[in-house]
Every structure is written in structure tokens, then in C-alpha cells.
Design brief:
The chain has 15 helices and ten strands. By secondary structure, the protein is of the alpha/beta class. The N and C termini lie far apart (92 Å).
């Protein structure tokens, strides 16, 4: 065998070994290891709870937390930097349409996005937003996507009939004060803070308005390659996160305290509890599947998905049913109710009637209750 032939044999052999290594199943030693991604947001309370309350350990998992930034969150998941998380459905549908291999496995919570108008203006309905300036924390962010959906569903072309202006999330209220925008699209805890400050009224509230109030904005999300190699760990991690969501619903103040004191996010316990209390952590497997279908359909209507995209096909590609993860299992699941883990009685829940078009929902404003 001459030198050239020998080199070809070596190269081919190495390629085969590399290929086999990539496609090989996860070893028994690594089967229980999983990396969980997070950013450091209020709504990620179930991730922090699942770690601190031992729900991952109960499922036999050895967890490593991987903190990311908004700007690279999708890329890090796609490249295997972490294996699973829970995040906004709308944020990942376009990448999935374009071929990103990730799957939703269960709904975590509802109600974190809003479109709000200045109380100094005359905007009271979505249709009043036509021709107006809307502040967002970034183009392509979940608040921006939600606003696009709402506008499209009300016959407004979000590309030509409104003006989008970008501000840091914490400066949206200031932009309203200075008259630089007429309305804003935001998420928790910014939405509750602006309501509490009397700066805005809700025009579209994902926690209150149909069909969004029953839609899961955040769902468990897994890297497709990891799922294919380790479906058992994926199902176990999904169960841990869904159980944690149920725990957060039963103990919002305790979840807020845990998140802040363990330094998962920068906030006060009170502010974090206010934001968490506005959300509904009622986990559901079927709810996630429905949310994927609804969001896909409205994003297509709003021009955020390709006009040729088959919504049903996209929904099937984006969601997967896991063994041992079902609504029946969730219904049978019980969690503890921690003493003092609920919103303290010295706080009161203010109705939205004055600032939110009469919706019978709460803003979670933390103030002393004179009646108590």
C-alpha cells in the first residue's frame, strides 16, 4: 500500500469513528446528566425551584445550570450549550420554522406579556394603535411578537401602520413620560410596575384577554438531538419543571424569596412576588400543544411566519409528547403549601377596573390594605 492510499484509509477510518461517536447513545454514566439554561428572569421561578427544592434530584438527575443572555439564548440551545429550559413559545416558533431542532414538551405558565397605552393619551383599544408609536425592548423580542400578533388579529399591518421604537425595558415608562411613544409592549415585571405607577392602561393583556388568557406563553423546551439520545432524562427534567411550576402557583411569595435570596435574579422579594402573582403557573401538557398551534396561526396572520408555512405541520414539528408526562399525571400530582409562602395579607390585590378596561384581574400591587 503506497503512502497516498494509506493516508486515505486513515482519514476514512477517523471519519467513521467520529461519525459513530456523534451518533452513539449517551453512556450510562452520563444518562442522568442534564444542562438547564436560564437568563435570570422573574418567570423562570420554576427552574430555580426545581433546583432548590430537589425536584431534579427526585427524578434522578444531575443538573448543571447554564446562564445565558437574551442575545444568544437560541443559539446556545441549538448548539447544545444547554439541553433544556422553559421559555416563550413565540420566541422559538420562527427559528423552528427555519429548521431549528428544538421541541416543546409541556406548558409552564400563562400571562406575562402586555400592550399598554399611556393614560395621558386617547388609546383605549387595539384598533386605536393604528398610526401610533409603540415602544418595545427590542425587535424580535417576545413583547414585540405579541404586539404584532395582536395588531394582525385586529386588521392592522404592523409593518406599515405603526412605528416601532426600541428602548431598554427599564426605560419604557420614561419614554412614555417624555412623549416619545404612545404605547409600549412589555413583559413582567415591567407591566405591573407601570400599572402601579399609574402611567398606563392595558390595551392587550395576555393574562386577561381571550384567546390569550388561556394560552401558555412559556413552555418546556428541549434540544432535539439531546431528546433523541436521552428521552428518559428529557421526560424526567420536564416532570421536574412542571412539578416546580405547580409549586410556584401554590407558593408565589416563597418562590419569589427563593429566587432573590439565592441570587438567581436582581430584584426585591416584594417586587418579584408581585410579578409572579400576576402569572398563572398551572402546568399543562395539552395546553402547550394548543399554544403552539394558536401562536403559529396568529404569527402567520401577522406576517411573522412565511405565507407558505403549513401551521399544522409546524405545530407537529414543534411539540412532542413524552412518556410519563401527561395532564393526567399533573392532575394527580400534589405539592406542599408552605406556611407564609403565599402573598402576605398586608398586601392587597387591586382590580384593574380603573386602568385596564374593566378586566376583573389583579395587578399584584403591593400596598398596605387599610381594611386589614
Amino acid at each position: 500500500m503506497n503512502t497516498i492510499k494509506w493516508m486515505l484509509v486513515v482519514v476514512v477510518g477517523m471519519s467513521l469513528l467520529t461519525s459513530c461517536k456523534k451518533d452513539a447513545p449517551i453512556s450510562a454514566a452520563d444518562a442522568n446528566k442534564i444542562k438547564v439554561g436560564y437568563i435570570g428572569l422573574t418567570c423562570e421561578a420554576p427552574i430555580f425551584t426545581a433546583v432548590e427544592k430537589g425536584f431534579f434530584k427526585e427524578e434522578g438527575l444531575d443538573v448543571t445550570l447554564v446562564q445565558c443572555q437574551w442575545s444568544n439564548y437560541k443559539d446556545v440551545l441549538a448548539l447544545g450549550g444547554y439541553d433544556i429550559t422553559h421559555h416563550l413559545v413565540m420566541y422559538f416558533l420562527k427559528p423552528i420554522e427555519q429548521g431549528l431542532d428544538v421541541k416543546f414538551t409541556g406548558g409552564i405558565h400563562r400571562g406575562c406579556l402586555r400592550v399598554q397605552a399611556s393614560t395621558k393619551g386617547n388609546i383605549h383599544t387595539v384598533k386605536d394603535l393604528k398610526g401610533k408609536r409603540i415602544g418595545v425592548p427590542g425587535m424580535g423580542t417576545p413583547p414585540f411578537i405579541f404586539a404584532n400578533r395582536v395588531l394582525g388579529a385586529n386588521g392592522i399591518d404592523a409593518k406599515t401602520e405603526v412605528t416601532w421604537l426600541v428602548f431598554p425595558a427599564g426605560e419604557l415608562g420614561l419614554a412614555l413620560d417624555k412623549g416619545e411613544v404612545d404605547a409600549v409592549a412589555d413583559s413582567e415585571p415591567i407591566g405591573s410596575m407601570l400599572i402601579a405607577q399609574g402611567k398606563v392602561r392595558n390595551v392587550a393583556d395576555q393574562a386577561a384577554d381571550m384567546p390569550y388568557s388561556q394560552e401558555y406563553c412559556c413552555a418546556v423546551l428541549v434540544n432535539g438531538k439531546f431528546l433523541a439520545k436521552n428521552p428518559k432524562a428529557t421526560a424526567a427534567a420536564t416532570r421536574a419543571l412542571l412539578k416546580a411550576a405547580k409549586w410556584v402557583e401554590a407558593n408565589p411569595a416563597a418562590a419569589a424569596k427563593l429566587s432573590v435570596e439565592k441570587k438567581y435574579l436582581a430584584s426585591t422579594v416584594e417586587q418579584n412576588a408581585v410579578a409572579i402573582s400576576h402569572l398563572r403557573y398551572v402546568p399543562s401538557v395539552s395546553g402547550a400543544q394548543t399554544a403552539v398551534k394558536l401562536a403559529s396561526a396568529e404569527m402567520k396572520t401577522a406576517g411573522m411566519l412565511s405565507p407558505t408555512t403549513d401551521v399544522e405541520d409546524l405545530a407537529k414539528r414543534a411539540f412532542v409528547q413524552l412518556d410519563g408526562v401527561s395532564d393526567q399525571w399533573l392532575e394527580s400530582l400534589t405539592v406542599e403549601k408552605v406556611a407564609g409562602g403565599q402573598v402576605p395579607k398586608i398586601w392587597y390585590i387591586r382590580e384593574y377596573a380603573k386602568n385596564a378596561l374593566g378586566h376583573e384581574v389583579f395587578c399584584g400591587l403591593c400596598l398596605p390594605n387599610p381594611a386589614q
